[in-house]
Design goal:
Blueprint lengths: L10 E4 L2 E4 L8 H28 L8 E3 L4 E10 L2 E8 H5 L9 E3 H16 L2 H12 L6 H9 L1 H6 L3 H11 E6 L4 E5 L7
Parallel strand pairs: 3-7
Antiparallel strand pairs: 1-2, 3-4, 4-5, 5-6, 7-8
Helix pairs in contact: 4-5
Length: 196
């Protein structure tokens, strides 16, 4: 890159070290330094925008979904059509190569996230989980079984109060992994703390 190369300000680079060259500069040092500051600001802004976008709309299942066909993780991606953003989980092999390399390719976030949420809700509201949690809490707290059942039954109201980053963190804690292939979706949860 011509604007980053010290060769153009009369310097020579050898093994990562910069030395005064034996040639005349094409660009003056002041102009070169100003350009370097602009490049540094642009990199910082791009990184900030990328992190802001990631934090504003964190993918609920980031890092948790794996395709068993191509053995790659599905990462969050999006497509913007008109003014609407459509989120997907796309196999990394597809991102790096092509859709021909994976049978699954990508899965709409609007389909897989509700599926996982429904499964978590079903497991958390099951009698085994409620009684197991009750048994674990009895050691330290005086909770009635009905109180725990009521708390677990109000899962959707609780979930709606959380920020997207909090929802994502809870997913990371609850979900051990999700494997997907054309025939099925397997969801493995971490329920050690809930069941007896």
């Amino acid at each position: 890159h011509i604007l980053r190369n010290p060769l153009y300000i009369g310097k020579a680079v050898h093994k990562g070290n910069v030395y005064d060259g034996q040639h005349d500069p094409i660009i003056d040092q002041d102009s070169f330094d100003k350009v370097q500051v602009i490049f540094a600001e642009n990199i910082s802004q791009r990184t900030s925008r990328r992190n802001l976008m990631r934090n504003k709309t964190p993918a609920l299942l980031r890092g948790l979904v794996k395709c068993t066909c191509c053995n790659s993780i599905l990462t969050p991606t999006f497509v913007k059509r008109k003014s609407k953003i459509y989120w997907y989980y796309t196999a990394t092999v597809v991102n790096r190569r092509s859709y021909d390399d994976c049978v699954i390719g990508s899965v709409p976030a609007g389909e897989i996230e509700p599926l996982v949420m429904a499964y978590i809700r079903q497991v958390l509201q099951s009698p085994e989980t409620i009684t197991g949690t009750h048994g674990k809490l009895l050691d330290d707290y005086d909770f009635a079984l009905e109180d725990i059942r009521e708390q677990f039954s109000d899962f959707d109201a609780f979930w709606a109060t959380l920020l997207p980053v909090e929802q994502q963190r809870i997913m990371e804690l609850l979900v051990r992994g999700i494997t997907i292939n054309p025939d099925e979706v397997k969801i493995e949860l971490r329920l050690e703390g809930f069941r007896g």
